[in-house]
Amino acid sequence: MNAIERAKNIITSPNKEWDAIALEQPNTSQIIMGYVLLLAAAAAVAAFIGYGLIGFNVGLGLRIAGIDWGIRQAVVVLIDALVGVFISALIIDALAPSFGSEKNMGRSVQLVAYSYTPAWIGGILSIYPAIGWLGSLAGGIYGLYLLYIGMPKLKKTPADKLVGYYVVSLVTLIVIFVVIGYIMARIMLSVMGLSYDYGTLHL
Q: N or C, where is the chain less crowded by C-beta within 10 Å?
């Protein structure tokens, strides 16, 4: 199954698609190279166009725009995709035995990668930065739903332990990604020499 069809199916008929995924043998490299990078690249291109060429006003005379900002946003999208899938899968897999679930990194990568699908597709809205957050928000919320219904199918999570597994996984991931996000933002700003100034963003 190609990436576009998989993305369409996981969004429009998730329960049926999780059942199909559960029958597949996990192939981590194929999922990363043929699915994650493909969808994340589309979101990255949209981010580059939106922040690099279109830009948007954030108030008080401050405007975000410029090739450097476009490159920064695109790089962040790609790195977030790769790091996000790996760390999320690692945490979910590590927690699995505590909640009567199967410890299988391949299955965890499947679960996370396909659950992130709506976020990457929603990220395409960043081609218009002023409304880009809507796509990220809607995609993120739907992705959480996909993760929830996918856990028992791919991780064999018992019904009485599903909520606990889900909540503990989310809380752990939120804490880790807040820290990673802050560090990434500081590094990218520093590396690219970007800084804020009243009325403009400049090199």
A: C
